[in-house]
Amino acid sequence: MKRYTRDEMLKYSKRVIKLRRKIGLSQERVAEDIRMSYSTYRKIENGERNLSTGCLFKLNQAYNISADEILFDKKGKKDIRKYSEHDKMLLLLKLDNIYGKTKDKNEE
Question: Residue 83 has what pLDDT?
Fold first, then answer.
């Protein structure tokens, strides 16, 4: 699994904070809604813990927040052909991380 740099973790955490504040909820409430411990969620917002694909999925399910909004600061579904080369690479890395985890679980 890819380890994010501190800068990447802070970038994602700022977006998570912005989206949480936009919907007007506390850290405690979001953690409860996505069935995550408060301390783990707080570490994600503080940039001390990686933002997992599981957390992205839970945020999407609970609040209809797309991964694009968190990972790329873009709203809604976009045609990948319109992504910058940098965003395409980030998306491919994310998909590789998801596929790699799925493949590893299936092999067990």
Answer: 64
